[in-house]
Amino acid sequence: MMDHETYSEQIRMCASCPKMCRHVCPTFNVWRSDSPTPHGRSLLLHFDNINTRELDDRGVEVLYQCLQCSHCLTWCIPEIDIASIVELARARLVSENKHPEGLNRIRDAIKANHNPFEEPHDQRNDWIQTGDSGKKTIIYFTGCTAAYREKSIAQDTVELLGSLDYSVTITPDEWCCGSPLLRTGFVEGALKQATHNVEVLNSLDGDEIVATCPGCYRTLTQDYKSHGLELNKPVRHISQILAETVPAVAGIKAKKRITFHDPCHLGRHTGEYEAPRNVIRKAAGVTPVEMVRNRDNATCCGNGSGLRTLFPEQAKRIGQSRIDDAKAIDAEILVTSCPFCKNMLNQQSDDNLEVLDLPEFVLMLRKGLDTKND
User: Fold this and answer.
1) Burial class of 356 by CB neighbour count within 10 A (0 to 12, 13 to 18, 19+)
2) Does residue 179 sit in the same domain as residue 252?
């Protein structure tokens, strides 16, 4: 957690900067305004912090026009952590009841049904078929998006792990990890979800926990710990599991041109860039063709931090920009490793570019689809 002295110094430094990072800020690129940029947000917070100007409604709006993607951080020499600063500011706004009313629906849905989609909790994981014949037991934390909106990711993950000799456990008592609430400032509500999940996951028998959602992965491994909540099993992202267990298939290559989109939570927030690429190389027999902006310079998909809820058209334009990046290198398959990213990118794509999550992609190849003999 960032203390007030560090917070004050960082926003002062960012507010004094000549805005060298704004060229990579996705919200600047869609709004074309200085306000929704790292510098603009810091300037507003700095004036508020030194009691020069209070945050008005426009200031609050600017603080919620941020994806917390941390792309600016990769270009920032003094390493000003705008994403964390914005998160702290949003928590204060929520405590003062100054947050955008449009977020109340997500807050209330998670409180009532433990998912942001207003879906019944008892239908979260009841449809997933699991097996128990593997040598190693793994607990799959599905996350809300794979459970309710991108079900093929969850089902393909279970099938794929089963084929790799895992017994997969999925609990009906899983709740939202809390990430959507943490990123938008609803800390108290997030910790209620988190406390429940820690109790449930710690009570289950299993060797480790796997998440397909990088948002869940980051929250379980970083945010829970920062709030004093400890899991008694290691947590890994699905790409890390598959990088170790998916066998390389000799003499077979994918037919189509493949690229990979780095999710912000997996890449910049948890430092994992190579595992998904290694999985693609092993499963497809080819190295993914990189988009111009990749790894720590990858552009956000536009689907995070409440932006799509509050500003759907701008979020879609950010997603479309990433689709354009893939088409610019003549990619035919865009692989990501995040249900949230897949959901946004797939909706912005067309028949010329197939969007798949990593387990879906690997299982497709293991079934002999879209491959050719070398």
Assistant:
1) buried
2) no
